Write a sequence for this structure.
């Protein structure tokens, strides 16, 4: 099998260049010049987000295929654009590769990236390929756009708003635990959890619908529900009351938690990388949204309260506990 | 001294956030939400470029201060924007840091980044800080803008155009050699060369002037004159004839080359990271440009010829040799 040292940087760029442009009308110059040249949509705001994934910190090549890793490296950035109510448009990708990386590994890595970019009509318009003395590093930057009226920040939550999520929580963190323990393949419940961890689906379409429906604040659940609730509470200067009984947990998560001798709810609260959206909205708007979009898997999990009430969790017996900001820490 | 493990990701973000916005009118949301939100200039094209620097591949912490490294990590991206005729606007910065990195190192790294961003009114609007199991990795993405009429690609050079550069070449590569050999501090000639290597000055202002003056193609000299000449020749489907006697070499470079037992011209041709601009232009436009901008250090080094003539170098005795595309390889 060819190794990277044989094909070099230019050979690699030729491999990467194929099938990178899905929305030709917005790309004046793609890969191959000093910078990409892009045509913005008039009267939209520009969004910019970046994420770095480091081998043995953020991923383990014994647990993920290169295709899955490529898919996820893009997904985490699309999720950030979704959380602003925006639409992702263009990606630039930097990869530091050990010199012994097989060419096939690189092709599969980019295939995963290209697949999710195709799903979301995101163009890959540039990047940097460099060598790494040890370990793979991937950095993706995604540029997106949002209508000024649809921009949703973290800071707009108001007392009386509902707080809701776009789907089940905790699957990804439980999937990571299953991958770490190993021998998960024999359990049917494990597959959706492992899949949620390895190839998360960013809620881009839901994000634009929520924004248009009047979401007052929004965040993606990259760091877990507890941590992200605190982000919204702090940015919006409000308190948040969550109800444990309403937090959506999958049947598979419950089975896995039992197997792993863990609490399913803890995965939802303190696990991370679910990439569902957490949002707040006036109750009347939320009712209209539910009526208009039965296709979305929205679940109301609590409400916005006065700042002085802090961020709390009401347990199934009605007891109230303070919810700590601890959660998944990207800075491990 | 505090280490990174003590202050954590959020402490680090607080350190980084200060003094990041220089052009307040264009930033709706900077560091701190899921994505940056930016106000584009109407009727301009958007530019996007990214570069990754990996410790022990692209830099050696025994040869550079963290301040210089931060400065350079931004500079290389601004140079790419300059080479399109554009103006850099916003940067997002990812850094993977070993857990034992002293806080002071990180502060100095960002001070260097902030200094060059201040010089060019570039806003730092986001980023990602993660831990690294080994070695520092920095990825910078810069978004810029260009008037459609001023966009300069690599592909527009025409037979009969002159080809010119914005300043002396080879200083950076000679500076790197001096740093590698060591004990350069005693030589007066070494300082400008080492400085050219460690804190290169991107030619942003020159780039916009050249674009407005009608540059037909442009490239920054990140990989050396030979390699970049081939880039323009290939993209534009032309030949290029360069004159060795006209390539601008500094007196310091000549002294260093003698000391290092190397050819000064080789540094200009095959060294890299000068970050001067290489451009082509109709002769009449070039004459006007020279008259209008005596402040620029422009030097004509050759002309564009038919494709069939290839890329050649005319030596000081009038002999013609084929110029190979070899040069500085970022993919080391």
């Amino acid at each position: 099998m060819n190794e990277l040292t044989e094909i070099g940087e230019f050979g690699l760029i030729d491999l990467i260049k194929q099938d990178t442009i899905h929305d030709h009308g917005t790309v004046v110059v793609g890969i191959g010049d000093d910078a990409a040249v892009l045509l913005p949509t008039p009267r939209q705001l520009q969004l910019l987000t970046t994420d770095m994934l480091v081998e043995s910190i953020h991923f383990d090549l014994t647990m993920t295929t290169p295709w899955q890793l490529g898919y996820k490296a893009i997904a985490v950035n699309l999720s950030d654009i979704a959380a602003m109510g925006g639409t992702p448009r263009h990606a630039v990708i930097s990869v530091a590769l050990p010199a012994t990386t097989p060419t096939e590994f690189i092709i599969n890595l980019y295939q995963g990236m290209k697949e999710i970019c195709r799903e979301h009509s995101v163009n890959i318009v540039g990047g940097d390929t460099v060598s790494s003395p040890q370990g793979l590093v991937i950095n993706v930057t995604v540029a997106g756009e949002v209508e000024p009226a649809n921009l949703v920040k973290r800071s707009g939550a108001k007392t009386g708003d509902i707080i809701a999520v776009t789907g089940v929580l905790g699957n990804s963190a439980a999937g990571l635990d299953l991958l770490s323990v190993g021998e998960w393949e024999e359990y049917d419940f494990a597959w959706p959890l492992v899949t949620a961890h390895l190839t998360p689906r960013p809620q881009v379409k839901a994000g634009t619908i929520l924004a248009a429906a009047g979401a007052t604040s929004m965040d993606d659940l990259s760091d877990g529900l507890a941590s992200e609730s605190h982000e919204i509470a702090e940015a919006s200067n409000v308190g948040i009351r969550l109800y444990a009984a309403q937090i959506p947990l999958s049947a598979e998560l419950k089975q896995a938690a039992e197997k792993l001798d863990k609490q399913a709810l803890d995965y939802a609260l303190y696990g991370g990388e679910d990439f569902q959206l957490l949002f707040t909205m006036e109750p009347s708007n939320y009712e209209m949204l539910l009526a208009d979009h039965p296709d979305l898997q929205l679940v109301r999990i609590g409400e916005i309260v006065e700042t002085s009430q802090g961020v709390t969790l009401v347990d199934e017996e009605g007891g109230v506990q303070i919810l700590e900001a601890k959660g998944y820490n990207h800075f491990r």
